[in-house]
């Protein structure tokens, strides 16, 4: 009770912001991968009334927890976008609380607010918080697991591990990161690898291992594969890259980490670490470990595959980057620059929502709030198609605009646009939110062979309807 009372001045402002963000975006539809992982999975369980554990073959590959959670919430309340957004709010509030507990462990009271600021201002964390996204749930359970691990809460830790393996394949990878974190923190604090310790250590992960194995076995028995379905639309993402692709993935990974204003946090943290390298406190070493383990665990797996490396994959890393930077600022011998540097870092993170790259450079639109105008622009453009009586299947477009309003907005309209084919289609609906148009296709649209018959623009997002001349 005392901890809660002490926390209120720190957490209330951020909790209020989480509520206000949820209210602000409550009518926005499912976006990007959440169309599949949230809406499609959730509606399957909702419509089948939880009568089957497995979704259809063409969308299979993910554990059921998030889809079932949404479907259960819809059953309790109503299947609407407003309900869907508010179903995410408990996890947003939970993230604030978990970050507070971590900040309290690593920084003094007067600096807790700064630590919270440098974590919760991260543009990708904010953007994902504005969506109905399973990655928000992943961050919550991972942080809850870390706090349970540090506080020796064995039962809650086990619950978090099971939730993660039932949430997503990346959740399963993050369990491996927690396994390594647990072991390395024990060694960091001088613990030995005795037989007794190793037995108890393995015993701690036994229930999670059983749950994961059971899911994989059941999935394999039902579908005949686990992980990726080679015959699915995204099966190509499971292939191994060549040497060029390997180094390209490393470059993309680094870009994702420093993108959208985070570069100043990395520079600040690395400079301060270099200056203090010979006398780092134990808690700083612990924070470095908490940052590096999930980064290396996930990175060493992703760089070998053609799977796109998204910004949101590193949300946990961003959290510990903010905490580490806040802690390292306290090591400055002269405390006066702290506030100026902190203000600069906060402004850098806010600026991330305004980073828009040139047309031919793919941008992580689900990773900043820059994408928010897309929802209304899409509705207006679809309304224009209806007014002009242009059949949707005659209009070519691209992800994430190929899903029906039934999938994105939970309506009854199941019409869809067609996958783009500039050689055969008369109409093409393009937005700078789409990353799937090739340079050649963009050049063709901007040539004399096509004309823009309708353009909508709001903020940093625009949408154009092209007609072939």
UniProtKB/TrEMBL annotation:
Record keywords: Membrane, Transmembrane, Transmembrane helix
Residues passing through the membrane, by range: 7-25, 82-100, 106-125, 132-150, 197-218, 253-275, 287-307, 313-332, 339-357
Superkingdom assignment: Bacteria
Protein name listed in UniProt: Glycosyltransferase RgtA/B/C/D-like domain-containing protein
Organism listed in the record: Nibribacter ruber
């Amino acid at each position: 009770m005392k901890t809660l009372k002490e926390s209120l001045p720190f957490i209330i402002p951020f909790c209020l912001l989480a509520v206000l963000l949820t209210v602000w975006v409550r009518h926005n539809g499912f976006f990007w991968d959440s169309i599949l992982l949230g809406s499609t999975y959730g509606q399957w369980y909702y419509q089948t009334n939880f009568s089957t554990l497995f979704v259809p073959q063409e969308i299979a590959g993910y554990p059921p927890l998030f889809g079932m959670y949404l479907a259960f919430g819809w059953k309790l309340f109503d299947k609407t976008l407003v309900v869907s957004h508010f179903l995410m709010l408990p996890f947003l509030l939970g993230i604030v609380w978990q970050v507070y507990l971590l900040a309290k462990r690593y920084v003094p009271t007067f600096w807790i607010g700064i630590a919270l600021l440098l974590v919760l201002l991260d543009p990708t964390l904010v953007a994902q918080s504005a969506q109905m996204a399973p990655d928000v749930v992943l961050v919550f359970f991972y942080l809850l697991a870390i706090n349970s691990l540090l506080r020796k809460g064995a039962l809650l830790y086990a619950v978090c591990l099971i939730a993660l393996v039932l949430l997503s394949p990346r959740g399963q990878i993050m369990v491996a990161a927690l396994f390594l974190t647990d072991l390395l923190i024990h060694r960091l604090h001088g613990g030995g690898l005795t037989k007794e310790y190793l037995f108890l250590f393995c015993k701690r992960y036994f229930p999670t291992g059983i749950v994961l194995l059971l899911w994989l076995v059941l999935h394999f028995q039902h579908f005949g594969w686990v992980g990726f379905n080679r015959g699915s639309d995204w099966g190509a993402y499971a292939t191994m890259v060549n040497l060029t692709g390997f180094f390209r993935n490393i470059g993309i990974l680094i870009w994702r980490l420093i993108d959208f204003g985070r570069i100043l946090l990395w520079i600040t943290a690395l400079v301060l670490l270099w200056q203090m390298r010979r006398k780092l406190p134990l808690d700083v070493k612990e924070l470095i470990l908490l940052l590096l383990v999930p980064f290396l665990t996930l990175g060493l797996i992703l760089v070998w595959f053609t799977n796109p490396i998204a910004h949101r994959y590193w949300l946990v890393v961003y959290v510990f980057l903010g905490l580490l930077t806040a802690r390292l600022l306290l090591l400055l011998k002269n405390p006066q620059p702290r506030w100026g540097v902190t203000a600069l870092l906060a402004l850098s993170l806010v600026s991330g929502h305004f980073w828009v790259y040139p047309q031919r450079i793919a941008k992580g639109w689900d990773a900043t709030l820059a994408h928010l105008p897309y929802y209304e622009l899409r509705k207006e453009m679809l309304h224009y198609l209806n007014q002009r009586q242009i059949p949707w299947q005659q209009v070519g477009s691209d992800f994430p605009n190929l899903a029906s309003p039934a999938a994105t907005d939970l309506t009854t309209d199941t019409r869809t646009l067609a996958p783009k084919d500039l050689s055969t289609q008369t109409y093409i609906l393009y937005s700078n939110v789409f990353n799937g148009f090739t340079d050649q296709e963009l050049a063709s649209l901007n040539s004399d062979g096509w004309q823009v018959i309708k353009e909508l623009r709001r903020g940093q997002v625009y949408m154009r309807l092209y007609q072939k001349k």
